[in-house]
Structure formats: C-alpha cells, structure tokens
Write a structure and sequence with these properties.
With 1464 residues, the chain is mostly beta strands. It contains nine helices and 94 strands. Strand 71 and strand 72 form a beta hairpin.
Length: 1464
C-alpha cells in the first residue's frame, strides 16, 4: 500500500516537472522580443541673433535609458569640437561659442546648426535645425531730415537700418532718450512717427544704434512746428502700408501715415470688412498705423488704409502673410515587423506655407528608391524589410517659418517570434496572418509543386501551383516571396484565403526579371520552399509619365503662367506637351500645344479660378496626365459701375444714397467698398466719401437747405476704383419735415367700383410739413377694419381685388409715419353685379384673368416680409422673402404656399401676373429688358391667406434692341437736290436707352453690308442730313439703332431717287435780274423772291425750271402794247374827273415824282411802255430795248389812302426772321383770295433804258429829327409780295430795282406843304398819298396770312451805282403828260398807333454798271380791304384838270433838275 502511494507521488511529481518545463520554454520563447527604447530630445536649439565678439549658446539636451552621445553639425557637416578652442560642448549637450567671429569676408560662426544624439547599438536622432545670425555693423540706409510740420499734423523721420539692427535702435530728442507711446511710435523699419504734433515736439532728433559697446548716431534733424493756418492742404501718404510677413504668435505693425488739411481720418479694412480698432487684438496707433497682437493664420489677407477728409479720399493696400510653423497632426509610431514585410510610417503635418517633409534613418537622409517610397505626400513606405532596416526613423517637416522633427523606432523580429502586441495597422494586410501565428510542434508542409507563371504582363504576374505532396493538414495557406534578380531585399505576398493555389503580384517594373518562390504553412509553421522560378515582365509601351512640379501662378488680371519639369520616365524624346485648362465650375476644358516647359495663357477672366494639367507626348502617344493645379488671376478694378443708384431726401440737410453692386462678372475681384462723389449744383469740384465692405447705402449729412446735389458712385477693389455711374440729382428740403406728430388726413379719396375690385385713388395731406411714411388702406363689407393694406408714401392709387359682386364696402385711408397713423378719411362703394355691362375703361381681360387673391379670413396670416428683388439678367429677377410665421430656421413643414405677383407700371393699366411656389425664393423669368417691375408676395395656408406684402422693385438689365427703327422716310432738301433728309422713329423694342443710330445707304440694295456707306448719328436724334449725293440716282437707306449693349436689327431698305437737276439759283445773273417771271412764279436766282407754290394765273404752281424766255418776251410785248393804250385812256379820264369834295380832302403827295423831259429829236431816248394789268392791277414792263439789261422798278401802289391798314410797331422786331417765315400754302391762299378782288393792291413795273451812263434813281432815307431810322443790313430779304425790290444774292454784279418809300407821321409833305386829302385817279393812283389816322394809323400788309401782324416793314437792299446826291422833291398840284418821263417811285407813308420812324427819302443819281454795297429800304405792304369801301373811294378820288396840270408841271420841272445834275 505504501509502495503504491510512493509510486503515485513520484508520477505526480514528474508530471508537475514536465508542465513547469513546458511553461518555462514557452516563457523563454516569448521574451525574445525586445522592448522599444525611449529616446528623444528634451531641448532643441532655436534661432538666435548673436553679436560680434559676444558669446552665444545653442541649447540641446537628449534623453534615453542609456546615456546618449551628442554631436553638432554646422551646415550639414559635423564639427570637430575637440580641436576647436572657440566652440565648446557643455555637459547637457549645448554648444557654446565663446566669442562670435564675424566680418565682411569671414563669417565662420553664422549658419545652420543641428544637434545629433546617438545611442550605440540603438540608433541616432537629429534635432531641428537652428539658424545663428550675427548682427552687422551699424549702418544707416537713410537718415532723418529737417522738417517743418503744422500743429496737429503727422511727421515721419527716417532711420532705415537692416532688419537685424532694428532691435538695437532707439531715438533721442535734444540728446535725451525719447519715450515711445501710442502717439509716438517706431515703425518696423526703424523710422519714427509723431502724430498730432504739438509745440513740445519741436527740437533736434537723432537715431541711435547701439550694439554691445558700439554706439552709432545718425545726423540730427530739426523739426519745426508751425501754427495751423486753416488753408486746405493736399491729402497724401507719408508712409503707405507695405507688404509684411510675420510668424504666428508675433505682433504686426502695418504703417499708414497721412497728412493734409482738414486732418485726415484713418480707417482700416481687412479684405472687404471694416476693422474694429477698439478690439483687444487690433488698434490704431501713431495716428493711423495698425497694430495687431499675436497674429494668427486668419489674419492673412489684404489690408487697406483709407485716409479721407472733406476734400479727398486716398487708399493704399498691402498684404500681410502669416507663416504658421509646421505642426504634427499625426506623428510616426514605433513598429514591430518581420523581415520581408512591407511597412508604412505615417506622418501628417500642417503649416503655412505647406511644409516639405523628408525622412531620416539613424541620422542619415532616406533616399527614395524602389523599396523606400514616399506615399500620400508625407508617409514613408519600406518594402521587403531586412534586418539592416532596424533603427530610428525621423519625419523632418520644414517651411519658411521653422522646421520640426518627430521620431519612431522600428524593430525587426525573428520569424519564429510573435509580436508582443496586436500587429500594427501600418503593416500591410497580406502580412497579418503571418505575423499573428506562432509555430507549432508538428510537421510542416513540403514544398508546393509545379509553380508556373500563368499570366505575364508589363506590371503584374499571376502565379499558380499545386498542393504540396505532404501538406500535413487541411487549412494550408501560402506565401509568395519575390525579388528582382540580383537583389537581396525579398518581398512577400500572401494568398487571400486558405487552400487558394494562385496569387497575382502587382506593382512590378516592366521588362524586369523577378525570382519567385512559394512556401506553404500549416498550423505548425512554414514548410519547405519551392524551387525558385525566374520570370521577366513584358516591355511596356513607352509613353511618358506625368510631368512633376506642375505649378501655376497669376501674372496679371488676365493671364496665368504654368511651369513644369520633364517627366521622370520620358521613355524617349518628348515631342510636345498638351496644357489643359478650364475655369473652375464651367466644365469646358481647353488645351494648347506647348513645346517648352512653361506657357503663359492670356485672355482669361479677371479674378477667376482656373485648373491646369499637363500631358507629355512622345512618338508613342500621350502620356500620363498630371494632377490638377489651381490658380486664380489677379484682381482688377471693376469694369462696370454700380447699378440702380437712387436718392432719398431724408430732411433739409441729409440725403440717403442707395445702389446695387455692379453686374456679376464685372467685379474683377472682391468689392472692398464704394466711393461716393457728390457736388452742389453744377460745380466742377466735388466731395468724396467711401463706404467699406458690402455696404450698399450711405447717408450724406451736413448739406445745405433747398439745394440741389448730384451724386455718383463707383465700386472699389484692392486695385482701385472702377467706373462711376451717371450723375443723379436730388434737392434737399427747404425746411425739415416734422415727425413729432402723426400726419393729417389725406386731402381727398376717390373710389371706382368694378365687379370684383375697387380702384382707390387719393391725394396727400394738405399740410406738407409733416413726414408721411406711407398709407394704410382699410376695407370690408360694412366695416373698414376687416382688411388692412399698407402702401408706400409715393403711391397714389391702389386696386382692391377679389371682392364680392353687388356688395357694399366701406373704405378708409390713413397716412402714417413713425409716430403712428393719422386721421382717417372714409368712402363707401358698392361693387357692380355680375350682370352689369363691362366698364368701357376696364380691359375685358381683367374680368376673367384677374390675379388670384383669396378672400381674407377674419384672422388672416402675417404677410411675408423683407421682400427683395435681385436682378439676374435682362429677363430674369430673383424674388426672395422671409415668413415671420415660420420658425427661426425658416423651414416650411406644413402645406402653405406663396403667391408671387408682379407687374410693370408702363403702361399704367398693365395686369398683374402671378406664380405659386412652396419655397422662400422664386425666379421670375420672361421679363422685358430695361423695365422696372414691382413684386409682392402673399402666403396661403388652407383657407387662410395673408395680405400682399410690401412691394419690391427691380429694373431688368438692358440688352440689344430687338426691333429696327420704324417709319423711315427720305425727302430731298428744298433747293438743294444733292442733300436729303432722312427721318425715322425709335424702335418699338429698344430694350434700353438708345445711344445712337447708324444709317446705311447704297445705290445697290443687294450689296454686302460692309459695302454700304455708313453715317453715324450720336444720341437720340430722329433726323439726319446726308450731303453730296449724285443727281438722278436711286439710293437705298437702312437704319440700325444701338444702345449700351450693342446693335439692333436693321430696318427694311427704303428707296429714294435724287432729283434730276440742280436748283435754278445757280443760273446766270442776267437771268436773275433781267428776266420776267410768270405771274405766281419766281425770279431766277432769287431764293426768296416768292413763296414756294405761289399760284400763277391758272392757279397752278409754276417752277423755275418751266420758264421759257421766248414765250415770256412774246407775252411781255403783247401786254406792253395793251398797257400803253390803257394808260392813255385812263390819263384822259383822270384829267376830267375832279370834284370839290376831293379838293377839301386832298393831302399832299408823299412821294417824290422824278421827271425828266427828253428832247423830241433824241433817238437814244424811248418812252416807257406801260400796260395796266386790270386783272391783277399790276404794271408790267415791255422789254422793247435792244439792250440786254433793262432796269425795272416794282412799286406797289395803293388805290387810296384808305387802302392802308394799321401795322403794329412790333413788326420792327422780326426783320431777321423774314426769310424762313413764308409758307407756300399760306401765300397761295392769300393771293388766291386777293386775286378775286378788284381792290387788290396793284404793282407797277417801269423799265429804264439800261444804256450807260444813263442815270438811275434809287431811294436813300434822310433821317428826321424826331426819331432815328434804323437800316437793317440783313441777309433775310422780304418777299416780293411785300417788297417793291427784287435782288439776287448772287455775288455777281446785279442790275438794281429802285423803290422810294417814305414813312412820316405828320401832315407835312416832303417839301413841307400840308396835305390832308389823297390824290388819286380812278382805277389806279399815280401818286401815293397818306391819310394819317391818329387812332389806327395806316400801312401796308403782306398777302401772307401769318405775316399780317408782328412784322417789320420789309427792307430791300439797293445797290446804287454812283455816290448819292440828295435833293428835295417839290410838291405839285398837277402832273403833265406832255412828254415822256422817267419812271417815278411814289413816296408811301405809313402811320401807326405808336410813334413811327420819320425819314425823308432822297433820290440818288448814279451810273449803271458799278457795284455798290446794298442799302436797306423799308417797304410797307398792302392791305386787304372790303370791295364796297374801295368803290366809294373811287367815286371820291378824282383830280380836277387844273390840279392835274399843276402836278404834271411840277413833275416836269423836277425831271429838268434831275437831268441838269446828271449831265453835270
């Protein structure tokens, strides 16, 4: 029993010993894996500024379980500190420079230093790189200068030194240290700024640079402070902002110093926002410089200094770039791995500028190769690990601000050692199974059989095999080991699942031989390896790879330059590159072929973002594309002015200016503000104010009362100011309107009921001194409080819609302002029944297509608010609004919808259009260009609806005209057939303000447009003259309108043929003055002889071209013969007809009767041939003279003194307007009316013998003493219907017609003989007399009806041919017809209600053929008097024989005197 117990105890002991041994083996096997060793830097060196001759220390301290060995590198080379007496290694690892050496040519201590720590048998790590800079010798780049400054102004004293010397710079005033504060500051350049100068700032200033024991002072500059004069001084920058670069955490001082009077006000803008200088981080010091404390990356941007006073505004911009040192977002971590595995060290960094990353292994840089690769920009991938890859790996990140480092340790485990922890995710997935398993104690598989490459390509190979002969298990997995032939670094690839007998090896190199072997493993571990298989990949088509270092940067607002390097794998000669680019978000990619490594793309949009990529091209084709890079063109000034500039007069001293931004696509950058210029009246000088950011309004205050101001606005970017708007004017109120009380009630209210609507109109309150902000309209059935609508204060009518027919509505209207609503005015109306006939003033469409407006509920919904209309294009406006009945997030969760209605007020009866939507925004399309629309919105939910919201307005943009000009007509200019006048009307669809027209004309209607002649017309004129056309030629005309957006379509071609001949005013002079004109015709060459269309005897107009000279001669001879007979008969009758009554009424003859008695034997003298035209009562000459140029006198003779009607003295004022005042149809009507009357005023034309040197009598006035007589030497002569003279304007010498006219206002004759009765002959007067009437006066009137009043007597120009000799005309009581006499011109008198011009005419004797300047002769016109009165006057106007004999004797004596003077 005891033996059995002992045997059992021995067995138990043996089992326990066996278990302990097994556990011990297992424990030993797991303890082989080494632990990661702590190894890092406690202190790393930092950048320092050293002073020459002074010591300097670069700190460094490393930590590890084993004492590290510290060394130093300078500029990448290890320093030999053992033999260096100036550089010492301190115990903690820091580097001491006992005395810094620095000179111009020897700078041994300045450079980049790096601390290197090493632990033997473990690895090496490097610290960050630190820069040691030595301050240079004190040197002034510029020195302060003497200045005179006005009190209260700012001053800048220069002291520019190198940046490394600025920390050693200070200022002294009168050789005493100067204390700096917010008024007196030192700029980053070292300059001194003194703002708000006062008298205590005067003195001597100097700049001091003190380094160690070296002190250097600048020259002294005297600053004088002057008293402020108050005179304006030009605004200018003393120091504008400059580009600044700061590291995050530093302070930034951006300079801005301005001077001028009035003192400028300084404001700062950051990008498009106004900077609040009262914040904790930013403030304005030194009178305008901006100080920002502890800058961050968010402070990077454009800073604009705005300096402005009442006279001008200046701005200057500079950019601040904040550099952010590299920061590790993800540091590399320690890794366990086995040989042949692939691992990845992750390293993610950030910073500004973007940091560059390089990797270091045990202190040495990792060079990228096939097994060491940089992936995902920063990560390091190591392929096919080997034992020598073990050690410390460091990620070194660097940018312009600083450089940083982070390290991690890699430990390579033996194949039979499991990792101590869960495998790192940095191990590739194909190795996880291998790492996670530990070898068992059983048999392992034999080698896989028949390993072959079943598929070989350029970059991958597919391997297949068969099961091992002895698998020793079911779940057999396989690992493929491969490497390029000749390499010692083997990589692995595992099968994806147990039992799989194939694997594809990716990422191989083309045309490379690889060695493959396959190993099977089961739960016991790896088995035997297969025989190595050598396989070569296929050669690849040699297309280029991607081009590295693709960069794009803007060079101007419209160009970007793109550069790149040659592909690393060019695979032959690169033929060219394709540069692809497109605007971001547009999608239309373009490309250009480039033969170099850079290209500048021009013609791009301003301030637009573009993407670029490059593809290399060789003989095999296009290669691999690069990744896209993005660049934005520079900004520029806006290319269009702001839109919709409006003015709102707030009170007597302020005007609110509002506008909209320039159209999209014309900003050319971020709008940083707006510049407002305004001026008073039409002054040329203006005042400028600026706004910041996106502010679209500005209240201009401090204006004068009752004064008109003009405003215009321009948008600004950082580049400057864009174009300005047109001037818009508004006038301030004479007095401020009162808003301390509510408005009075409207002065009137009118309603017009329709079937389902009522039109309400009103007028504002009578008291205009109270502010009215709007009107409230209340209405309802029986009560006006059911519904209320508010409208703008400018509105004067409103249509209440969707009412019930045949219903009684009460309407109330109240004006309101900020104080409340005023007193209401009431009106009632009954809508019409449906059976009522339609209102003729209402469009039928309104009855059946009225905008839908739901009947308001007793509790209506709140109307939408904040309605805004944003113009998008020429036919689209976006309407947005807010709904106060929704939650704050404005999210619609119920079944409500919105109704948007819109209309234009042109024409006024335009109907509303509506559209429903369930969103808070609606796009209204299909609008007319350049048209103002009003919009309002209503919300509907179930049966409840709101009222219409307040209206918003928007004017669509302009576009090119859609229709051509209309009603094109072409006419020839009167008297100038080579000139045509073309008239037209504007296009019906102008789509904007018409800025001009283009007239096309050609003789070929089928010619190309570019072959037509072009005549531009500027502005909105609707008529144009085209000159120098060819006679008798058909022309075709087209017109095209244009506005600011471009040209519209052309009109249809209009044909016009020019006349066949030139105007007859170019005929010879002898025809002009020597040829008779048919009755109703006109003299050749006299543009103003008769009115156009004057009728002839038959009543038809006779043109000058129809004159036939031979026919005229025949007519004149015939008429002359008849005239002689009639004259003789009349003379005999007149001799025997006298009465005693006529003697009492006879007045002295006012005309001068020249007579000359020729000898009977004189063969050269001929009696005048006269013919009295009884039909027209005109004396016509008979041309019997063989001489070519007979002289004629056309003298109007009144029948009696009563034929003379009054003439207003105001006629004197329009003598210069006479030529253009005649109208053909008026003359025709007047003459036609007069032609049928016997009493029409006669004309007598008497020929002179034209043989020189026969004397000629001309009229010349002798001014009376009562009133001076004015001679009008005007080029505008009288019509022949009103003048007795006919003269051509031709510059050639003319024959003269003579007319003698006298105007007196007394009964005194020329020879001072009283005369109160007219002397006349029945049927015609030989002597014209005047019958003065103190009440009415007498005178002659024109036959033209429009010239019967308000005209001066016409003035004819007489060209005398000899210096005048004056004589008085004696008064005679009779006239003798015993011998022929020269034609006499009677002196006609004219009286008026106002004092008349008194003059005495004298006869002038000259010789024909000489040319003299014209002299004016005033000619009265004949009246149109009743026939009955003329018949009575004929009975009374008879001369007795003795009186006639006496007059003829007097005439004979006068002619004797005239002949004596002539022969002398």
């Amino acid at each position: 029993m005891a033996e059995r117990g002992a045997r059992l105890l021995l067995s138990l002991t043996f089992l326990l010993l066996l278990l302990f041994t097994t556990a011990a083996k297992s424990t030993d096997k797991g303890s082989v894996a080494r632990h990661f060793t702590p190894f890092w830097f406690l202190v790393e060196p930092a950048d320092i500024l050293a002073v020459r001759g002074s010591p300097a220390v670069l700190n460094c301290s490393a930590y590890s379980d084993l004492a590290p060995r510290v060394e130093w590198k300078k500029d990448g080379t290890f320093l030999n500190l053992a033999s260096d007496d100036r550089r010492q290694l301190l115990p903690d690892g820091s580097l001491l420079l006992t005395s810094v050496v620095h000179s111009k040519h020897n700078k041994p201590d300045e450079g980049y230093y790096q601390c290197v720590a090493t632990v033997d048998s473990l690895g090496t790590i490097n610290s960050r790189v630190a820069r040691l800079t030595v301050a240079g010798l004190p040197r002034f780049n510029s020195q302060p200068e003497a200045l005179m400054v006005y009190q209260g102004d700012s001053v800048v004293l220069s002291c520019d030194v190198n940046l490394d010397l600025v920390p050693f710079t200070r200022w002294e005033l009168n050789k005493e240290p100067l204390d700096l504060d917010e008024r007196i500051i030192s700029l980053p350049s070292g300059a001194l700024v003194i703002s708000n100068v006062n008298e205590s700032d005067a003195g001597l200033y100097r700049c001091i640079v003190e380094i160690a024991a070296t002190v250097k002072a600048s020259d002294e500059a005297k600053v004088e402070v002057l008293a402020e004069t108050g005179m304006p001084r030009q605004l200018q920058f003393l120091r504008p902002p400059v580009l600044s670069t700061k590291v995050q955490g530093q302070d930034m001082l951006m300079p801005c110093v301005a001077t001028g009077y009035p003192p400028p006000r300084i404001q700062w803008m950051f990008n498009d926002k106004l900077i609040d200088s009262s914040g904790n981080r930013s403030k304005i010091i030194g009178g305008g410089s901006l100080l920002i404390l502890n800058v961050t990356d968010e402070d990077t941007g454009m800073y604009t200094c705005l300096a402005g006073n009442e006279n001008d505004t200046l701005q200057a911009s500079a950019e601040l770039m904040v550099q952010v040192p590299p920061q590790f977002i993800k540091r590399p971590t320690n890794i366990y791995a086995h040989e042949s595995m692939d691992i990845v060290f992750e390293c993610e960094v950030s910073g500004v500028p973007s940091p560059s990353v390089k990797w270091v292994k045990n202190g040495d840089a990792v060079i990228p190769s096939d097994y060491f690769k940089i992936i995902n920009e920063y990560n390091l991938q190591v392929l096919g690990l080997v034992k020598s890859d073990e050690g410390f790996y460091q990620c070194m990140a660097e940018n312009d601000a600083r450089n940083m480092q982070a390290s991690a340790q890699l430990i390579i485990l033996e194949h039979d050692v499991a990792t101590p922890t869960t495998p790192s995710t940095l191990l590739i997935s194909a190795t996880n199974d291998h790492v996670a398993q530990a070898a068992g104690s059983g048999p392992t598989p034999s080698a896989p059989r028949d390993v072959v490459a079943s598929l070989v390509s350029t970059r991958f190979i597919k391997l297949t095999w068969r099961l091992p002969a002895e698998p020793h298990g079911d779940n057999i997995t396989y690992t493929v080991y491969y490497k390029p032939e000749g390499s010692s670094r083997e990589r692995i690839e595992n099968t994806s699942r147990p039992g799989e007998l194939q694997v594809t090896i990716q990422s191989l190199m083309p045309e490379t031989k690889y060695v493959f072997r396959v190993v099977a493993h089961n739960k016991n571990g790896l088995g035997e390896s297969s025989t190595p298989l050598k396989v070569s990949t296929q050669p690849e088509v040699q297309v280029p790879g991607p081009s590295p270092n693709l960069r794009a940067f803007a060079t101007s607002p419209t160009s970007i330059t793109v550069t790149w390097d040659m592909p690393l794998s060019g695979n032959g000669e690169i033929q060219n590159y394709k540069l692809y680019y497109m605007e971001k978000g547009m999608g239309n990619e373009q490309f250009v072929d480039v033969g170099s490594l850079s290209y500048t793309i021009n013609g791009l949009k301003k301030y637009a973002e573009y993407s670029f990529r490059v593809v290399a091209h060789n003989k095999h084709g296009l290669g691999v594309s690069t990744e896209d890079v993005v660049a934005r063109t520079f900004s520029d000034v806006p290319s269009a002015p702001p839109q919709n500039l409006t003015l709102e007069v707030r009170n007597s001293k302020s005007i609110m200016v509002q506008w909209q931004p320039p159209p999209p696509g014309t900003h050319n950058g971020q709008i940083t503000g707006y510049k407002i210029r305004y001026r008073k009246g039409l002054r040329k000088s203006d005042t400028t104010e600026s706004t910041g950011g996106i502010q679209l309004f500005q209240l201009i205050e401090g204006l004068e009362r009752g004064t008109e101001y003009s405003f215009r606005v321009a948008a600004m970017t950082v580049n400057g100011t864009g174009p300005v708007t047109e001037w818009v004017s508004a006038e301030t109120f004479e007095s401020d309107l009162d808003e301390s009380r509510v408005p009075d009630k409207p002065s009137s209210l009118h309603v017009r009921p329709l079937v389902t609507s009522i039109v309400v109109s009103w007028t504002p309150p009578e008291n205009q001194d109270i502010v009215v902000r709007g009107y409230a309209i209340g209405y309802g059935i029986g009560s006006p409080h059911a519904q209320t609508i508010k409208v703008d204060y400018k509105q004067r009518y409103y249509t209440i819609e969707n009412l019930d027919p045949s219903s009684h509505y009460v309407i109330t209207l109240k004006a309101f302002n900020n104080m409340g609503e005023g007193e209401p005015v009431y009106e009632s109306a009954v809508t019409r029944p449906l059976s009522d006939p339609l209102d003729p003033e209402v469009d039928v469409y309104d009855y059946f297509n009225a905008p839908y407006t739901p009947v308001p509920d007793p509790t209506p919904m709140l109307p939408p608010v904040g309605v805004q209309a944003t113009v998008l294009s020429h036919d689209t406006i976006k309407v947005t609004w807010a709904d106060n009945s929704l939650p704050k997030n404005q999210k619609i969760t119920d079944a409500r919808y919105y109704t948007v209605r819109w209309k234009t007020n042109i024409p006024a009866n335009t109907k509303y259009k509506t559209s429903n939507t369930t969103n808070l925004v609606h796009m209204v399309t299909g609008l007319k260009p350049n048209t103002l629309y009003e919009f309002s919105v209503m919300v509907t939910k179930g049966r409840r609806s709101s009222t219409w919201s307040m209206t918003a307005h928007g004017t669509t943009f302009e576009t090119i005209p859609n229709s051509p000009p209309k009603d094109v007509t072409v006419v020839s200019k009167e008297g100038k057939p080579r000139i045509i006048i073309i008239n037209w009307q504007p296009p019906s669809e102008a789509n904007g303000k018409i800025t001009g027209y283009i007239i096309y004309y050609s003789t070929d209607v089928n010619a190309e447009v570019h072959d037509w002649v072009i005549e531009p017309v500027v502005g909105n004129r609707l008529t144009h003259q085209i000159q120098d056309l060819t006679l008798d030629t058909p022309y075709y005309f087209k017109i095209q309108a244009r506005n600011s957006k471009g040209m519209g379509p052309m009109s249809e071609a209009v044909q016009f043929r020019t006349p066949k001949a030139e105007s007859s005013d170019k005929m010879p002079n002898d025809q002009a003055s020597g040829s008779s004109v048919k009755p109703g015709g006109r003299h050749s060459g006299d543009d103003f002889a008769t009115s156009v269309g004057k009728p002839n005897l038959s009543g038809n107009p006779t043109s000058m071209g129809e004159n036939n000279i031979p026919m005229i001669v025949i007519v004149i001879v015939s008429v002359g013969a008849f005239t002689i007979i009639v004259v003789v008969v009349v003379a005999v009758i007149c001799t025997y007809r006298t009465t005693s009554k006529q003697k009492k009424k006879r007045a002295a003859c006012k005309s001068t009767n020249g007579s000359h008695k020729y000898k009977a034997s004189s063969k050269d003298l001929k009696p005048p041939d006269l013919w009295i035209h009884h039909e027209r009562l005109e004396l016509k000459p008979i041309d019997k003279s063989p001489e070519p140029n007979p002289v004629m006198t056309d003298t109007p003779i009144p029948r009696t003194s009563q034929d003379i009607t009054p003439v207003d003295s105001s006629l004197e004022n329009s003598i210069h307007q006479r030529r253009n005042s005649y109208r053909g149809h008026e003359s025709e009507d007047s003459i036609s009316a007069l032609a049928g009357r016997r009493g029409m005023r006669p004309k007598m034309m008497m020929p002179f013998d034209a043989q020189p040197p026969q004397p000629v009598i001309s009229a010349h006035p002798i001014h009376s003493l009562e009133k001076p007589h004015h001679h009008y030497h005007s080029g505008s002569l009288a019509s022949p219907t009103r003048s007795c003279l006919h003269h051509s304007i031709s510059p050639r010498p003319l024959n003269n017609s003579i007319c003698h006219i006298d105007r007196v206002n007394s009964s005194e004759s020329v020879r001072n003989t009283p005369s109160t009765e007219p002397l006349s002959i029945p049927g015609q007067s030989i002597c014209s007399v005047e019958h003065p009437d103190p009440d009415t006066g007498t005178g002659f009137l024109s036959t033209s009806s429009e010239e019967e009043t308000n005209r001066n007597p016409p003035t004819a120009h007489v060209r005398p041919s000899h210096p005048l000799k004056s004589f008085a005309v004696p008064n005679s009581s009779g006239t003798s017809f015993e011998s022929p006499v020269l034609p006499s011109t009677p002196l006609l008198a004219q009286a008026g209600t106002t004092p008349q011009l008194h003059s005495v005419k004298t006869a002038s004797i000259g010789t024909l053929g000489r040319t003299r300047s014209p002299m004016p002769v005033t000619v009265p016109s004949a009246p149109d008097i009743p026939e009955t009165s003329k018949m009575l006057e004929e009975v009374e106007s008879n001369y007795e024989p003795d009186e006639l004999t006496e007059e003829m004797a007097h005439l004979e004596g006068l002619m004797k005197d005239l002949n004596t003077i002539t022969t002398a």
